[in-house]
Amino acid sequence: MSIRTDLAVEAKEVYEKENSRKIQGVEVSNSNKGKIKITNVKVVTEEGAKAMGKPKGTYITIDMPRLIHYDIDAMDDVSEVLGEELSKLVNLEDSMTALVVGLGNWNITPDALGPKVVSKIMITRHLKELVPDSIDERIRPVCALAPGVLGITGMETSEIIKGVVDKIKPNLIICIDALASRKMERVNSTIQIGTTGISPGSGVGNRRMEISERTLGIPVIAVGVPTVVDAATMANDTIDMVIDQMINSAKQGGDFYNMLKTMDKNDKQSMIKEILDPYVGNLMVTPKEVDMVIDSISKIIANGINISLQPALGREDIDRFLQ
Amino acid sequence: MSIRTDLAVEAKEVYEKENSRKIQGVEVSNSNKGKIKITNVKVVTEEGAKAMGKPKGTYITIDMPRLIHYDIDAMDDVSEVLGEELSKLVNLEDSMTALVVGLGNWNITPDALGPKVVSKIMITRHLKELVPDSIDERIRPVCALAPGVLGITGMETSEIIKGVVDKIKPNLIICIDALASRKMERVNSTIQIGTTGISPGSGVGNRRMEISERTLGIPVIAVGVPTVVDAATMANDTIDMVIDQMINSAKQGGDFYNMLKTMDKNDKQSMIKEILDPYVGNLMVTPKEVDMVIDSISKIIANGINISLQPALGREDIDRFLQ
Amino acid sequence: MSIRTDLAVEAKEVYEKENSRKIQGVEVSNSNKGKIKITNVKVVTEEGAKAMGKPKGTYITIDMPRLIHYDIDAMDDVSEVLGEELSKLVNLEDSMTALVVGLGNWNITPDALGPKVVSKIMITRHLKELVPDSIDERIRPVCALAPGVLGITGMETSEIIKGVVDKIKPNLIICIDALASRKMERVNSTIQIGTTGISPGSGVGNRRMEISERTLGIPVIAVGVPTVVDAATMANDTIDMVIDQMINSAKQGGDFYNMLKTMDKNDKQSMIKEILDPYVGNLMVTPKEVDMVIDSISKIIANGINISLQPALGREDIDRFLQ
Amino acid sequence: MSIRTDLAVEAKEVYEKENSRKIQGVEVSNSNKGKIKITNVKVVTEEGAKAMGKPKGTYITIDMPRLIHYDIDAMDDVSEVLGEELSKLVNLEDSMTALVVGLGNWNITPDALGPKVVSKIMITRHLKELVPDSIDERIRPVCALAPGVLGITGMETSEIIKGVVDKIKPNLIICIDALASRKMERVNSTIQIGTTGISPGSGVGNRRMEISERTLGIPVIAVGVPTVVDAATMANDTIDMVIDQMINSAKQGGDFYNMLKTMDKNDKQSMIKEILDPYVGNLMVTPKEVDMVIDSISKIIANGINISLQPALGREDIDRFLQ
Known about the structure:
Four copies of one chain form a homotetramer. Chain A is of the alpha/beta class. Chain A has two domains: 8-230 and 288-322, HybD-like (Rossmann fold), CATH 3.40.50; 234-280, no CATH class. Chain A contains 13 helices and nine strands. In chain A, strands 1, 2, 3, 4, 5, 6, 7, 8 and 9 form a nine-stranded mixed beta sheet that branches. Chains A and B meet through α9, α10, α11, β9 and α12 of A and α9, α10, α11, β9 and α12 of B. Chains A, B, C, D: One of its GO terms (biological process) is spore germination.
């Protein structure tokens, strides 16, 4: 029952809270674009990587303003910022090919983010190959795949991607995935961009085996959005919060204070089990309007990716192409 | 933040726990059919109704065995039991018309149970009226409607139903609705049948205004299944459980014991708010495979209703008709 | 096998071709807004109504330019024109209520236009009633319903609408329906607005009983778009075209010329039956990308209706409200 | 405008009609199982292959009885027959892996057959690899993929399959595809099994490049069902039928007879263009209830494939596994 988070900013928070000291080997910087907050977490040493539970590399977090999904202009602003941040990582000549991969299970709404993004990507590789004269030469060849998950295909997603990459030979992969966060406040409001690929065991549906430059031989940019909190995580955090509040109220050194301080993992686990039974490990907490929100986020992400992959085109050209 | 439950069996449990005594004016009996447990809760006095927070009447609960959704035969058994229990409440001559109403919002998966059931009901009223010779005379006229919810239509569901009832003049209404339960163990595993209609404020989406014999002038049978636990309820129950465990461990009469005993609603509310922010009141806890499970339950419920409304037909006839 | 069309402009064409003379009692005028052509057909006498097979009244046809569904700006232009034309027919004070009705079967893609439009209408009636202070007083109360079709509900759509209208008492109804046209060139490219309600037997799915001011007591504006050509119509027209071409080639007065001229309905029907067997009467001709196109048209229509019903709001306000 | 058919039985009919003689190098045999007709077309010589426009190999056609989609038992019978016919072609040891590929575009209902079948296949490969002890050893490892179409992915489907096959190394591929037939009577009522793979240019959506043993190095069994007639084909056949009827009526050797006999392709093409404009090449003829029928066929096909791939299991085991 180790509490896992897919977000680098949360991993840092958890570490610093649990260890009551600042993390080493990790550099953090912040900036803002209007109401949008950008946090850059660089894991620079092995020590930092171990403390974070994440490989060395860059993790950029874009915090969307509240109520974004009710405001088309604000959505566009986030797409622009995402496009800019991605552009810094996409180091490709115009003629190089990008493969966009939508991870996740299209039958589970909050896990369907990846496949939904893929359906809104500007697909051009076949036109560049089959009818090159019909298409602006500055347009980059882009292809995309939503391979499904292990239970649907019987194949590790990384196996499928590896097979396709070996055959198609793209120069860059952008992977989109739905994540789990620790905190409700980050659900559907944070975009994380990472350069270290997708690690095993991530996401809503526990997909495994690494999709990364190490395994595929080409750069992999991961774009993730937390769309759920695991119910066990929420129960765990609720228990922690109650206990913390008790500790603050209890007399230091008193019997009760000591009892609280020594409350162990087994007690917590049995409480979580009682609350969630019979569904432990299989429950998620989501906003009621999850279908609408996933739709809205998938547009934001797809637009950001399209902007970064097609620097020669304006937004209108992209919209026209996609319709 | 009063903790509400749509289930009579839970209302009784909550009352008896909070008041540490047995509820008055409520009669409970149990029976079993194979692995299926049937609980009959009769609220017989006004005192009982007040204690329960539910009108006088009969509430039948059918507890499905675990893993039901992975076993077609077991699903059929539940449909049969549901059909039998409903049949006892459907007091209609063969020629009388039933209207089946699917409440809920088809855009929110766990609230879509009602509309999904309606799509699997055997619809016959138009055939009886338009081509009576083409259809077995023992077939009951049945019609159905999934009116949507207030935010989708701009009309109270009860207004739409009242309008349609006044025009169509059915003799009975069966309403299907997705409920919220207090406990995860009841989610997607309990069917409640009630004779008192649908009360205000019920369900996942807070639909309002009563749909009942009192307002419509004809009997209303409500069939509900809890498909979510409200996240605020889960947080509240988690906090309660932690506190209860502390109380058990604390020395009776000691300072800490007294502090715990006097912990008030405001403390709890502020903790819940911190956990769920910014989504308080708008979060639900569901199993990951909610789409598949709602599909499966809607088949079970629709089959049970079809069995009860068409006593002259066998299962094969109903299946053939529906295809 | 009488060849039916839902479009007034086609009914006029058919009459004039079959009778080789101009129709009487029908006034036609044309205008253009950019690339959009607007045709106004007024059936002014009973003689005209009989010849047209349509009640006396006004039928406005908006012809969209080709490739509209690939161009967001062009789609907006059509919505504006539709909004203007509808505004001329919507004679309501600000506080009066409009009910938007989406006819058709959501399970048959080309018949799902009405329900899809309804899902994009700005719904305000409940806000005006429940939280009047929270909403701009110039906003008109609008409610909406997609009642389904006879085979799904067991009730005539007109019965459901009549029941709801009697209860809700709106001041105006706007009905949206998918139509069948005679000619492929009009499919998904023509919007017809009519003031005479929806006539029996119209549309893709043969819905019956009139929805009109005569039956409901309030004005009914019908908005329709042809989304299919009936396959039997296409086969019939193909046969006619071949025969016409033969007649042109044959020597006038010769045996063959006479044979062609006397070819009767039975011959044609048996040929159509042979081509379409075993599906006669149940086949439709649609473009392959029908799902995408119906989506696009439903946006155009919903925007036009929103513009006409909320004259106090700009497009941005409406977009923001709908998100 | 060469009239193409995906069905071997139709290719033979067309050849024999156009050439007024029996085809050479093709062996045909028939049998029946209850109301189900099985036709076995063997193309045995190169001459036969050229005449048919299909590679040498075996093409089995299963004709379903009418109204099959309204009768669960009859559907099961077809699945059994399909399972038997496939079993004869699946020459694998128990431990060998099969890959099921669902071709086609899930956004175009009649082209979505392949992806829908894949979603109902019993997927076991990952269980055999990850938790071999939890699963009956007689269960064959099966994996599946619905890769999408060129316009969605930017990659030739055959490229994706080739990449995955090289990586996963299955021993057999079963491909499912929606076909176009010449005749409405075969739409949704014929299943064709072929051993020569999927040829270029087949299907509703014109997918290209061969998927076959020749290109992939392992046996490829293709299962196809015609789900549409191309509207241009229907128009063409209608014209032919009218002309044939004229020819039969015209005096042999007369002017008109000669004119009809010499009517050329250009005349026909211009008539087809006039009928279908502006949609030539992009229109399909389908039954109205296409969504329901594709669902029903996908169950029949998936069951047949499951039966053939898991000979050690009974139908109940397969159903239980799939739920």
